Recover the amino acids of this structure.
């Protein structure tokens, strides 16, 4: 007889907690008995140690349905405790099934081997086939029973299974998802195992991937990350996607405000026809689908008042406005006022819009619209202004003439420098990362990313490694280090730039297309469409701090008749680098760009 697995006490034949001749007789007949601890008052435990355990198979005895596996659930019939014989899948993690289910005709599971386990969790070692792996069904071990690939219609789906995070009940096999002919909106997909559970073991298996036709491969991550704030979820993927597109399609400095762009496009999405292709594309590309329902997204935008700085050394102003013709629904205008804090005015000419931009950016951006076309029916405008003093300013006496080596050649610059015992330092891949706080609270900071080597490939690799998960990981990894930093004074003046091509690359196409009735929450005009999205951003960095501003304008037109008006780590930024202004609590990038010339 076996002894107690805990105290190793003397075993005696026990049946339902009662020793004696009846138990011995049943043991001789080869029937199931309790594992042999001296019984306690609890008929399922050991008197010596109090350990609870139930009927077990004694080596040499046949098992019966009376065997109970305490605290074990059959993952097929959900019976608890698992009765009779217990089998564990050798492939799936923590998947147990009773012998009755395993042998039943209705049992559906990939053809994985199963091993019999006793009530102590040990492999059954008695002669026979009980401890031998057993297979059932098809020989394809990656079969997802009862699941069909919605692209190639293979049933059951084989290989890797991916489920769309946006569409209801849309599954696709890995072969189709990675194929050149795969057509689907750029929605997020999550890999599931054969039990329908999200995979978590491989580094990216629990992170959604985007179907081909969305941004470049590095931007295949569009999902809510555990612990990521709603603001970062809305800003980071969009900002990194546009930055990558702009930096790979043009030379020179690039400077954008994901906050301004995301807010403006959020106003656009709020007017899209419900359940339309336009709405689906906007929700996917802007990562609204990853955040939740439209109400959740609008609530996140309405909550951006948390960005308002209470630090006297940091000034932050965000503004929104809607310039509309008389054909625009008042309910839509009211929604913009409620959820985005937008002002509203009649669309008449470019002058009032540009004056508004200038006033909201302290004169840094004086114009965003050249002229108002008779076919323009609405222009949505967002602006953001930031002015922050360094928590620890650079000493002007340490600033010296130096050389900045850009792709266009070497150029003179004024290089600031400082060595500090405690400067937030991290790494993104092989690139150096430094975070410099503004003001007294450190709620806002500048983040500088410097490639390890001075070449175009290193900068491109840095851009390729920049995504929402790596950004979140970077901000979690900053630690105080002794750093010698050299940083040039610089000014950036980017735009007026059309973002239309970049937004189309990210998957927003229907909004710019010819289809009718795309924005019925904005107007009854079926011919209204998004004509262009314009952006301008500026920045100046010196010994005292940073001043930055940005404006985004979404222009709506109609194709119909024109409406009537109504160790010391050296980080020497003497070559191209990336520069961002972030909201530290959420890690959301308010501004981000590439500095190629100073």
């Amino acid at each position: 007889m076996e002894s107690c697995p805990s105290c190793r006490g003397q075993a005696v034949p026990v049946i339902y907690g009662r020793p004696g001749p009846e138990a011995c007789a049943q043991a001789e007949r080869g029937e199931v008995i309790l594992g042999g601890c001296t019984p306690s008052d609890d008929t399922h435990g050991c008197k010596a140690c109090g350990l609870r355990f139930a009927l077990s198979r004694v080596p040499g005895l046949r098992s019966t349905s009376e065997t109970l596996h305490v605290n074990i659930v059959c993952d097929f019939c959900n019976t608890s405790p698992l009765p009779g014989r217990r089998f564990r899948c050798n492939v799936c993690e923590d998947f147990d099934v009773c012998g009755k289910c395993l042998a039943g005709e209705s049992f559906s599971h990939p053809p994985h081997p199963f091993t019999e386990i006793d009530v102590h969790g040990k492999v059954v070692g008695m002669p026979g086939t009980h401890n031998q792996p057993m297979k059932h069904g098809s020989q394809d071990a990656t079969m997802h029973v009862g699941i069909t690939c919605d692209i190639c219609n293979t049933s059951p789906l084989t290989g890797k299974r991916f489920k769309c995070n946006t569409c209801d009940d849309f599954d696709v096999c890995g072969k189709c998802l990675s194929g050149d002919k795969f057509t689907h909106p750029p929605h997020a997909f999550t890999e599931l195992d054969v039990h329908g559970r999200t995979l978590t073991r491989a580094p990216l298996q629990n992170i959604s991937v985007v179907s081909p036709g969305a941004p470049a491969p590095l931007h295949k991550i569009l999902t809510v990350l555990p612990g990521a704030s709603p603001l970062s979820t809305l800003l980071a993927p969009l900002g990194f996607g546009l930055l990558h597109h702009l930096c790979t399609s043009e030379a020179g400095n690039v400077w954008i405000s994901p906050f301004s762009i995301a807010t403006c496009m959020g106003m656009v999405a709020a007017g899209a026809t419900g359940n339309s292709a336009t709405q689906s594309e906007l929700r996917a590309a802007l990562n609204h689908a990853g955040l939740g329902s439209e109400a959740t997204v609008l609530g996140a935008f309405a909550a951006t008042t948390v960005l308002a700085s209470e630090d006297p050394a940091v000034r932050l102003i965000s503004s929104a406005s809607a310039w509309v013709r008389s054909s625009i629904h008042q309910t839509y205008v009211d929604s913009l006022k409620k959820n985005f804090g937008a002002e509203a005015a009649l669309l008449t000419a470019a002058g009032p819009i540009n004056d508004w931009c200038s006033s909201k950016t302290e004169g840094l951006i004086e114009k965003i619209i050249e002229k108002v076309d008779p076919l323009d029916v609405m222009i949505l405008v967002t602006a953001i202004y930031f002015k922050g003093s360094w928590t620890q300013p650079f000493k002007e006496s340490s600033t010296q003439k130096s050389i900045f080596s850009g792709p266009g050649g070497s150029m003179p610059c004024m290089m600031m420098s400082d060595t500090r015992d405690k400067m937030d330092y991290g790494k993104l891949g092989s690139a150096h990362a430094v975070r410099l706080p503004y003001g007294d609270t450190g709620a806002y900071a500048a983040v500088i990313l410097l490639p390890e080597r001075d070449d175009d490939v290193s900068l491109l690799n840095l851009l390729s490694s920049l995504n929402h998960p790596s950004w979140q990981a970077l901000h979690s990894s900053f630690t105080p280090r002794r750093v010698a930093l050299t940083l040039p004074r610089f000014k950036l003046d980017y735009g007026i730039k059309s973002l239309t091509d970049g937004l189309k690359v990210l998957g927003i196409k229907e909004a710019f297309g010819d289809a009718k009735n795309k924005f019925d929450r904005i107007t009854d005009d079926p011919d209204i469409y998004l004509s262009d999205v314009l952006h301008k951003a500026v920045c100046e960095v010196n010994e005292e701090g940073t001043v930055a501003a940005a404006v985004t304008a979404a222009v709506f037109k109609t194709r119909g008749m024109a409406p009537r008006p109504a160790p010391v780590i050296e980080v020497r930024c003497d070559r191209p680098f990336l520069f961002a202004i972030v909201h530290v609590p959420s890690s959301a990038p308010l501004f981000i760009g590439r500095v190629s010339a100073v």
